[in-house]
Amino acid sequence: MFLSIQSNSHSFQSPRRQYNQDLFWPGPGVSGNIVPSPSPVVLTERGHLFVVASGAGMPPYGLEACRLGIQTLVSSYYDEGISTLDIQIGLQASFRAANEVVHDYVQGVPDDIPGCSMVVAVIKDDQLSIGNVGLGGAYLIRETVVDRLVPLPGPSRPDSDRISTVTFLLGSYTPLLVEDDPVDPMQLNPYLELIGDVRVRRGDVLILVSDGFLGLVEEKEMLDVAMSSPETIARRLAQMVSDSLKGSTNVTVTAIRFC
Predict the structure, then answer these.
(1) Strand, coil or helix: 253
(2) How far is the C-alpha of 91 from the C-alpha of 102, rounded, in Å?
(3) Where are the domains of the chain?
(4) Which residue from 2, 208, 230, 258 has the highest number of Cβ atoms inside 10 Å of its Cβ?
(5) Which of 36, 27, 39 has its CA nearest to residue 66?
(6) Tens of pLDDT, residues 195-239
(7) Angle, nearest 10°, between helix axes 61-77 and 87-106?
């Protein structure tokens, strides 16, 4: 069953902060020749891609990490030279390609924690897949239920208490590049969360958020705005986060409604 999609994104810029290092796709700041629009055939085969990324580190390096990460991930996922049509395999390969580019970039950055979080949704017909690295989030709202898809609950590795949150970034500190490390028992993309084959239906709303959203908006508040347009949902949820922190944060929300 094919579902039509309505979407909108809102990025709240705190007046107390000079830089907002969030970016989203589709959206401004990451388009152009580096990210060509996929052909109708490729779009039909691989689905619609949505990304919310949040930069970390001293500005503007986090913003550039987001830009490079999104450009690489989107271009890689829609690369017509790649034969696989398996969405999760495609997402894993695209995250790896994005991490390599961001990793190379941050080697020359004079900052201890550059990089970016990134949450990605792929929607094909009535199937939803999610990929996540970092502290971004994805929620599926259906009728009176809010289901948090990512980040997954619980620690993602045995020694997580000793690992700083900078480990959960695309860039120099993430172990996404590690193929075989005898010192680290978790191998092969230990911080890439992949959720696949989630069935969506008409009336469902998918929410993608940058880091800083988690724990600041109650499920009831999300349900209260879920019947609004995607533009209103994104704007109001971002404003709720801002209000709860008295305007001292930046946050980006993408709302997607299935029709």
Answers:
(1) strand
(2) 16
(3) 5-258
(4) 208
(5) 27
(6) 998 999 999 999 999 987 877 899 999 999 999 999 999 999 999
(7) 150
Pick from 242, 237, 50: nearest CA to 250: 242
Asked if 141 and 222 count as a contact pair (C-beta separation under 8 A), the reply is yes
3-class DSSP state of 66: helix
- Rg of the chain's alpha carbons, rounded to an integer? 17
Whole-angstrom distance, CA of residue 64 vs CA of residue 247? 24
Query: pLDDT tens, 93-121?
Result: 899 889 888 888 888 888 777 789 999 99
Q: Which residue, among 42, 26, 17, has the nearest Cα to 245 in the 3D structure?
A: 17
Q: Tell me how far apart the terminal alpha carbons of the chain are, to the nearest angstrom.
A: 11
Which DSSP symbol is given to 114? -
Fold of 5-258: Phosphatase 2c; domain 1 (3.60.40)
Which residues partner with 48 through β-bridges?
Answer: 123
Encode 119-143 in three state secondary structure: EEEEEECCEEEEEEECCCEEEEEEC
For 242, the token pair is 């801002």
Paired sense of beta strands 193-199 and 145-150, if any: unpaired
